[in-house]
Structures are given as structure tokens and as C-alpha cells.
Amino acid sequence: MKPDKGKTVSTAKPQLQFAKAAPAAQAVRRRAGAWLKELRGRAGLSQIQLADRLGLKYYTFVSQVENGFGRVPTESMEAWARALGVEPSSFARRLLSYYDPELHRLLFEVKK
Amino acid sequence: MTVIAFQSKLPQRDGPWRSGELEAIVESLAPEHGGGEAGGWDVGVTELGDPQFYLLGPPPHAECILCISRLGRIYVLEDGAGRVLLEHNSLLVLAEQARSLLRKKKTQIAARAALIWCALRESFEEKLEAIMGEGEELLAHFAPQLAALA
Predict the structure, then answer these.
(1) Residues A59, B76: Cα–Cα separation, whole Å
(2) Contact B26 A14 (CB under 8 A)
(3) Is A2 close to B59, i.e. CB distance below 8 A?
(4) In sequence order, what are the beta bridge partners of B43?
(5) Which is the most buried residue in A111, B27, B95, B145, by most CB within 10 A?
(6) DSSP for A27-90?
(7) Could you list the pLDDT tens digit for every one of the 112 residues in chain A?
(8) Where is B53: in which H helix or E strand?
(9) Residue among A4, A19, A58 whose CB faces B47 most closely
(10) How far is A58 from chain B (nearest CA, A)?
């Protein structure tokens, strides 16, 4: 395994034919990603180790999710929760609050 | 003894995206952007510093629909759910595959839209025929009576 390096971002940006996405659209998923990263840190796992526990061939999807561009698929939420050592239903509920806040509000916040 | 460090003739590909790499990816995918399948792109890195390119879907969700990562000497193409679609040492091959996947998706959407249009048209025509038929029946029923009154 390679040693952890700090995050680096390329400074060289080519002239491109279509624009980068507005950062506002990803703000909520980024918060979810940050939370997942925090959970992984608490579990003492690297992205590679988590991907390994999830049975993924590459660890790149873990990074995609933690960077706020992808989301944990519903069908693998339980596996993620168990790999991170947290209770699956509260894990799914927290993710729902990021991925579909309105549905989360209706299910868990609106009183009868 | 003197040890001479020989440099590998193979290009090292560690580190962030180089301008040429990004240009190759974006230029390859840009023609598909017009179809509305992609809404934009962004870049990021893994915790090990491996660069990633995210092709994002249309707003408001703008979720990653395709992701290209460079891991050492290979490039990996994944979809937004983490399924590995292709691994190759040529970025151009990978970008071409990403492009054809987008094109395929666009064709599927167009086919679905055409199917919905045909179904709607058929159902509208059926209803219209029924209404017209009813009208004709009514006319056939009342016409003699109206004629008698006149």
C-alpha cells in the first residue's frame, strides 16, 4: 500500500469546451462525503481498506463518494455501515438526510 | 563503488492531471454534452493523490455519471455507482469508451421518448375515434327525427 499523501489539486486547467459544474449543486453531497470520511477515520480505515471490505476492485469509488460527487447506492448502504462499524438503519437515515432531505423530513420530522 | 540512478524510460504518471490529459478527456466528451446527458465536470483526488475526473449529470442533482481515475499506469472508468466499466493504459481508449457509453445512453433516452410519443398518439387516436364514432351514431339516430321536424 502506498503511504498517505496530502490532497493535491492540479493548478493547470486547460481551455475546455464545456464548463465545470456549479459548486452549489454538490454542497449537500460534500457534507455527506465529509461525514463518511469522518466515520472511516474513526474506524481507522484507509480508502483502500474500506474498498476492500466492500469488495470493490478499486478504491476510487470511495474517493468519488467522499469527495461529494457520488452517493452510496441504496443496495450497498448496509455493507458500508457494517464496514464502517455503525448501525445500518441510523447510517441509512443520516445518508437520506443528505441525499433526499425532503423525504427525510416527511419520514422522520413531520409530526402526525 | 558508484551507483548511478537510471531514470525509467517509461513515463511516470503519478501526480495530478496534466493539462494534456484533461484536454483529451474533455474534448472527447464535449460533443456528447450537447445532448444534455452531461451537465459539467470536475476533478478531485483520492487520499493517495491519484487524480479523478468526474463527468456530472444535468442540474439540479449534478451527480457523477462517469468517473475516470488514474492509478499508476492504468486508467479506470467507473459509473456513478462504482461499477468498473473499463481499465486501460490508454486514456484515449478510455475516453472513447466513455463517449460511446454516453451516446448509447442518449440513444436509449431518444428511443424511450419515441415509444412514449407513439403510445400517447395511439391512445389519443383511439379516444378520438371513439368520440367521432359516437358523434356519427348520434347523428344517424337524430337525423331522421330532425328531418321529420323540418
Answers:
(1) 11
(2) yes
(3) no
(4) B53
(5) B95
(6) HHHHHHHHHHHHHHHHTT--HHHHHHHTT-S-SHHHHHHHTTSS---GGGHHHHHHHHTS-HHH
(7) 343 433 334 444 444 445 555 555 578 999 999 999 999 999 999 999 999 999 999 999 999 999 999 999 999 999 999 999 999 999 999 999 999 888 999 999 887 6
(8) strand B51-56
(9) A4
(10) 8
